[in-house]
Design a protein that fits this description.
It is built from nine helices and four strands, in the order E-E-E-H-H-H-H-E-H-H-H-H-H. The chain is mainly alpha-helical. It has a two-stranded antiparallel sheet with strand order 1-2. The chain has a two-stranded parallel sheet with strand order 3-4. The radius of gyration is 19 Å and the shape is globular.
Length: 203
């Protein structure tokens, strides 16, 4: 999946058209690896699914309705955990399976870690330079982050300055301290060395 991407081409009327294409991995010379706080990332996925479901997306259809708030998030996690609990027993070893207990949305945190584990494995196998960028860097220092990315891809800054980039932090509203501790234990079990190095600041 890592070599599937959207390509945008300009049309005669000035608008752009999006086309999904598959690239030969040999053309990939560098990679930018975006990392977001895992706690914020899972809540953001909930909000994304809420909006997609509300808009009638063909890809996301909820069996139950949830409110777009911490209570709705918690119910969404509970239903998701029940759905995948049986499968988890056969997928994970006893130590990791035990670590799932008390972790809200454990399947989402597993998906988060696996995505980063796999992404680092791909770039390692391709032997290409990687620039890790943390989502909060866009909010903390947007101009400096843009310069860092442009320098990495060897491009010059072009166009008007980017507008401010504001992010939402959800940790305090959506997780108890006990849940955070259990999530951190699970993430440390699942993460590879490369992934753990990048997410450790959030744990």
């Amino acid at each position: 999946e890592c070599n599937n991407a959207a390509r945008f081409t300009k049309k005669e009327d000035g608008s752009s058209a999006r086309e999904w294409v598959k690239y030969d991995p040999a053309v990939i010379k560098k990679a930018i690896h975006l990392v977001r706080d895992p706690f914020d990332n899972v809540v953001s996925r909930f909000h994304h699914e809420f909006n997609s479901n509300k808009q009638g997306s063909a890809h996301i259809k909820w069996e139950n309705e949830y409110e777009n708030n911490p209570s709705g998030f918690r119910k969404w996690c509970e239903d998701s955990d029940k759905k995948y609990r049986g499968e988890s027993r056969w997928v994970f070893n006893p130590t990791i399976f035990a670590a799932l207990d008390g972790v809200p949305c454990h399947n989402e945190f597993f998906r988060y870690i696996q995505w980063h584990n796999n992404a680092f494995a791909v770039t390692t196998n391709l032997k290409i330079p990687v620039l890790p960028i943390h989502y909060r860097e866009y909010s903390d220092d947007l101009s400096g982050t843009i310069d860092k990315i442009l320098d990495f891809v060897e491009l010059e800054r072009n166009g008007a300055p980017a507008p401010p980039f504001n992010i939402k932090v959800y940790t305090e509203e959506y997780y108890t301290k006990d849940e955070k501790d259990k999530i951190i234990t699970l993430l440390k079990y699942l993460a590879t060395t490369d992934t753990l190095e990048q997410i450790e600041r959030y744990l």
